[in-house]
Amino acid sequence: MSIVIAGAGEVGLRAASILKAAGEPIVIIESDEQVATTVEEAGYTVVVGDASEARILRSAGVEDAKALLIATPHDPVNLLAAQVARSQLDCANVYVRVNEPKNVEVFQEVGAISISQTEAVATELAYMVTDPGIFDVLAQVEEDVTVIRVAVTDIKAQCPISSNQALVGTLIVLVTRGQSSFIPNGSTELRIGDVVTIFGKHNELASARAALSAGAG
After folding, report:
1. Are 141 and 113 in contact (CB under 8 A)?
2. End-to-end CA distance of the chain
3. Which of 60, 74, 134, 181 has the most CB atoms within 10 Å of its CB?
4. Structural domains in the chain (count)
5. What pLDDT shows up at residue 88?
6. CA angle (144 as vertex; 138, 145 as ends), nearest 5
7. Domain shared by 112 and 143, yes or no
8. How much is the pTM?
9. Angle (CA) 112 116 122, round 5°
10. In this structure, is residue 168 part of a structural domain?
């Protein structure tokens, strides 16, 4: 299954680059034909059109997609695209860039996981000056879905992600190892000292934290 990204601006293309490097098949929706041509020449599959239209989302394969990432700089377009994807195309995993923090709640009401750029940057700045270790909740992205950072300190956690039963139900989206960060997959073996960024529900994250960090339980 592919991941569909709506918007070929800086945010959308950065997400596409990271996901493509991780081996994910990508389809990009872009309304500007000139930009779409440039992106296609860079090796991406592109659907030209307005991401808020059901026929365009359908052409991009949203109905069968692993996820839809909506990353245009226009909240009205993003909201409509999220509504259509959720209500008409039954897309279960919709992630939306929210440009104005005041709009976060509206996006959550349509069933999308909303990421506020302002909140994300503020969070990054905050934890950059925090001592390393087990990090508390970074951002509340919907009612029971949270993002946390956890330092791997338990020797038993040094195994492939897919073989750690305590991580079932969570999604590790980033591993920071030393000065570098990368998107892991199921075969990625965690190491002592890694800092992992995890999405999940509160109870699942509690189990993950306990399994990764010695003394966290």
Report:
1. yes
2. 36
3. 60
4. 2
5. 96
6. 50
7. no
8. 0.60
9. 150
10. yes
Tokens of 40: 């296609």
- Other Cβ atoms within 10 Å of 192 Cβ, number: 12
Size of the chain, expressed as the number of residues it contains? 217
pLDDT digits (tens, 9 = 90+) for 8-61: 998 889 888 878 887 889 999 999 999 999 999 999 999 999 999 999 999 999
Whether residue 122 lies inside any domain: the answer is no
Q: Are residues 103 and 54 in the same domain?
A: yes
- Of residues 52, 4, 11, the one with CA closest to residue 28: 4
Could you tell me the residue range of the domain that residue 204 belongs to?
129-212
Phi and psi at 55, nearest 5°, equal -65, -35
| 68 and 90 inside one domain | yes
Q: In what order do the strands lie in the sheet with 3-6?
A: 45-48, 26-30, 3-6, 67-70, 94-98, 113-116
Amino acid at position 126, single letter: A
Distance CA 152, CA 22 (A): 22
179 vs 133, more confident: 179
Helix (H) or strand (E) holding 48: strand 45-48
Domain boundary among 70, 90, 117: 117
